[in-house]
Structure formats: structure tokens, C-alpha cells
Amino acid sequence: MKKGLALLLCVMMCLSTAVFAGGVKDGAGSVKDAHVFMFKSTGNTFGTLMYQGFETHMKNVGEKCVEKSPADTTVAAQVQMIKELINQGIKSLTISVNGDEGFDEVIALAKQKGIKVISVDSALKAAQREGHVIPASQQEVGQTLIQAAVCIKLGVPYPKDGNMKKAAAQALANYNGKPINLGILSAGVTTTVQNNWIAAMEVELKDPIYKGKVNPVLDKKYGDDDLPKSTTQANAFVAENKVDVIISPTTVGMMAAGEVLKASKSPIKLTGLGLPSEMKAYMPASASDDEFASVCPYMFLWDVIDLGYTAAVVVDSLCKGTYKASVGSELKVPAYGEYSDRVMKTISDPDAPGGTLISVGAPYSFQKANMSVWIKRL
After folding, report:
1. pLDDT digits over 307-349, tens only?
2. Phi and psi dihedrals of 39, rounded to 5?
3. Angle, helices 138-153/164-173, rounded to nearest 10 degrees
4. Is the pLDDT of residue 300 over 80?
5. pLDDT tens figures, 55-104
6. Domain limits, the chain
7. 2-136+303-366 belongs to which homologous superfamily?
8. DSSP letters of 308-331?
């Protein structure tokens, strides 16, 4: 809970403080010698919050930064924008990619120009990046979302001790009904980070506690992180009526599914990775509420702002030569908000031989005990 409290205080401070003084808003001013942050597309709250943290660090150390993201959630759109930025003489690129193929040529060109390149949240290939920053391990995310979906189907409130695995195991031990069917409403078919989480979900479902009680085959649909497309896919889940719970590992999918399930009064429940401010109409609002009267009894995320802040520290330190993203090397993350000075260890990437990772923190739950606070903050 200490991590949760620190997360809360940090977000409260960051969201209540104007942090744009040290950066350049998208489309404004020169980007020469700037640290560029590029998300999958413009208008995504997740990306906007990450950039707040990114800019906070750059402002603190007197570095120029800018957010540059394409309108379309495609690799081609990101590649075209990167080419333009390289020609304008940027200092570094921090990117959350729309897919793991198609960047070889443009990233090679960036490196030839001496531009430092890292990825955050959704990864470039190991050979293309100098480091990668993740919010939590893919195993933690996948395990948590499967356990939560099972508990929600079986009417288990979010456990006070936060031990989702224990709660799921106990509930399944006493369950003798039909196999539980789970659906996935994700981003694009090629979106790296969501696909890694889904793969981790499939691994979790191989645990003996689920055998014969939860269908190991996930019903997957993709909305391309586009609200209309995601809404269409959520409607398809309702029309087919084959799943008990939808898991959406993307904030856009969460909003779309929440609205569709609420409007249709479907018995299908929802969990995933969402922002409290966007999900308040589909979740319990206070500790006295019956969470199972809501479409989404509980969901998860992490400190999105800190994710961007840490990514900024990584790329800034690489540029200054004070950090090498090699296995075992330490990253010193300066104090800000309610966070004290931290030292993060660099680990190997189990899914990308030769690649390394910096992991910021584990999934954090949003549920009836804390939603009244979080809907005002994130």
C-alpha cells in the first residue's frame, strides 16, 4: 500500500501542477536538439499523461522536449514522422510503437545521426533500441487480469490484501459450473505490448487451478485503439453472448466496452487497464456501493506519469553518458513529487535476446474503496 499511496500523491501533484513550461507542445516551435516523445497516436489520454511525466524531468534538468505523435495508429505514420524529425536534428527519440516491424531503416538512420533511441510501454526490437521502459512485467499484467476476470465472474470482491491469485484459487476450488469463457478487446493485431500481455494471460491459464473450470482459449477481438471500431467489437461480444467477462488491456477498449455493456444491460462483466476518470460511469463510485451492480467491478493500471518520467530519466542519462542500459547497470531516478530518490536495476528482456528493461512498478487496482479519489486525479 505504500506504493499505492506514493502513486496517488504523485499523480495528485502532477495533475494539479502546470508542467508545460519546459517543453514544446506538439506542432509548436523548433524541435532541433529536442528530446522527442512519440506515442501511438494523438489524443490518447495514456500518452498525454506519460508526456507530463516525461516533460517534468526534462524541465527539471533544463532540457528541451516535445511531444510528436501521428494522427493514425500505424507503423507507417510513425515512421514518416520520425524521418521528418531526424531531418530537423532532434537529440533523442522515446517511442511507444504501433508494431514491432517496419522500423529498421528509419531507426538505423536515426542512430547514424547520433540520435539516442529508446522505447517505452510498447517496444522496439532489441537491436533498434538502447533500452526499454515498462510499467510492469508482462507476466504481472497478464496474471492479474486473468485472476481478476475469474474473481469477477464468480462474484469475488477485490481482496483487501490484494492477493488476486489466492482469491481466484479459493473461488475456483468451490466452483462446479460451466467453464468460464473470457474475451479480449485489445488494440491492434500487431500492437506489441498488448500482445505480450495476452500471451502472458494464456500462460496463466495453463495453471492447474483453471483446468476444466476456465476455457484456456481466449476470444480475441481488436479495435485498433479507435473508439468507433472498439465499440463495434464490443457490440459483437454482446450479440454473440459467448463470454462471461471481457478483459480490455487498453484504455480505449475499456471505454468502448463499458458504454456498450451498460447501454445493452448485458450480463457480461468487464475488467482491464483503464483510467478512473474515463471509467467512472461504469464502476462503483463509493465504498458503500455494490461493485457487482456495475459493469466493471474493479480494474487496474499504474502510475502513467511516473512511466513517462522514468523514460525521460533513461534517455537523458544515456545522452549524458551517466547510464548504460546493460544488464545489471543502475539507473538513478531523482526525487520528484512524493517520490524519493530511487535506484532501478536494468534487467534482461526475456522476450528479446540482447535487449534490456527497466520496470517501473506492478499493476495498481482501482475499486470501490478508492474510486471516489481517483476519478478526480487520473
Report:
1. 999 999 999 999 999 999 999 999 999 998 878 999 999 999 9
2. -95, 180
3. 40
4. yes
5. 999 999 999 999 999 999 999 999 999 999 999 999 999 999 999 899 99
6. 2-136+303-366, 140-300
7. Response regulator (3.40.50.2300)
8. HHHHHHHHHHHHHTS---STT-EE
Phi then psi for residue 345, to 5 deg, are -85, 140
- The answer to whether the CB of 227 falls within 8 A of the CB of 41 is no
Other CB atoms closer than 10 Å to residue 229's CB: what's the count?
17
State how far the Cα of 264 lies from the Cα of 30, in Å rounded to an integer: 48
| Opening angle at CA 27, ends 92 and 38, nearest 5 | 40
Do the first three CATH levels of 2-136+303-366 and 140-300 match, i.e. the same topology?
Answer: yes
State how beta strands 269-272 and 245-248 pair: parallel
* Sign of the Cα pseudo-torsion (366, 371, 374, 375, in order): positive
Pairing outcome for strands 116-120 and 92-95: parallel
Q: Give the β-pairing of 347-348 and 356-359.
A: antiparallel
Q: Which CATH architecture does the domain made up of 140-300 adopt?
A: 3-Layer(aba) Sandwich (3.40)
What does pTM read for this prediction?
0.73
Confidence of residue 272 (pLDDT cuts 50, 70, 90): very high
- Transcribe 243-287 into DSSP letters: -SEEEE-SHHHHHHHHHHHHHHT-S-EEEEB--HHHHGGGS--ST
